[in-house]
Write a structure and sequence with these properties.
CATH superfamily of the largest domain: Galactose-binding domain-like
Radius of gyration: 23 Å
CATH class of the largest domain: Mainly Beta
Distance between the termini: 22 Å
CATH topology of the largest domain: Jelly Rolls
Oligomer: single chain
Helix content: under 10%
Number of domains: 3
Largest sheet: 8 strands, antiparallel
Length: 433
Amino acid sequence: MSKVYVCVLVATLATSAFGTGVTVTAPSSGATVQSPVHYVASATTSCSKGVSSIGIYTAPFQLAYVVNGASLDTNLTLSPGSYSTVVQEWDNCGGSSSTTVPITVNGSNQSGVYVTSPANNSSVSSPVHYVATSTSSCSKGVASMGIYSAPGVLAYSVNGAKIDTNLTLNSGTYNTVVQEWDNCGGGASTPITITVTSGKTFSSLQSSVGWTGYALLPPGYGICNTCKPTGPEAIWKMTQGITSPSMSGSSSKHDIGGQTKYADILWNNHLIGDFSSQGMPDTSRTLVPTLHNFTYDVYFYGTNLETSQAVEFDLNQFFNGMGFIWGHECRIAGGHEWDTWDNVGQKWVPTGVSCKPVSNSWNHLVIKVQRTTDNQVLIQSITLNGVTNNLNIYRPHGTAVGWYGVTVNWQIDGNKNQDPYSVYLDNFNFIYQ
């Protein structure tokens, strides 16, 4: 295996005294409102670098909306019920502040569409599984629901207030809309943007078997064969089946600690080929050489990310003595910038693209890469929390004598004090074609 183990660092972000206040002008605290709920808020901070972002939690660990900057003005679709919503700001000094806004959403006159699958701005394979429900202020109820795959293109419809169907779509990006029509001539809709790949998907990898953790120690950062999870050089643990915080109800928790400063912990899973955890050993050596396009799609959560040195997300392909390592490192304490791996030079190369994941919320990361027809490493794009940076970086491949298959890595890096912290993963999907 190549010397790079693509490290991911996520540290613990202590709330500082820099964040000074969040002012919410709508909705008012304790109000009874209709959905969609109109939120208007602004934030101030004594941090000299200003406010980084502001968002809305509808429940603990459920970040329903976030936007860069010091103000928000948005409409949030919520089901009927009582909510203790929280509007929170995060500043550029590692601090934060929040205001709690309890509300009751009245369903008696509400029309709305609630989509649980697919997630907005997600990458999926076809057929795409759509699950949604709807409500209506019409006294006669909901008549039907449908899915538009493009403006004016109704790809599916069904009578009633529920959808649970698989929709076959070609590869590409779709601005789909899930619509409900009521028996009074009205309707409501929810937009869902997705990217459909023609490949196959390993789903919920955070809950999969096959993960192995390793300690990587400075200065060489090779795998420490004498290190144990209990330390003392580095301490690590992976716990699956975590219900909170979680999006799916089953996230994985990754812990780091120990005595050696800047020590890293790598978790690796062999998906296809040698040591496959997914029952795909490809013993005939016919599958792996045909694969060219890969998507790494994951949500990650940390309570204190600003003290993390870096978090790293990698995917690797090995065959015929060639090694293709698509390494992506989000330097956090190291400077809030994405680096990518140079297979030949064996070094990290800055991209100039900022990387600012948000603590105490789920961060959605989508990485798209390709092995070109002339066997180059192509780093296509990085999308973090809905913001896409198209990189299109071409580099030569490396060597990997004796290795065969496709693997994924996830790594967290220790900081200058090797402070202990935890990072959670959820909805971890890997698409290959």
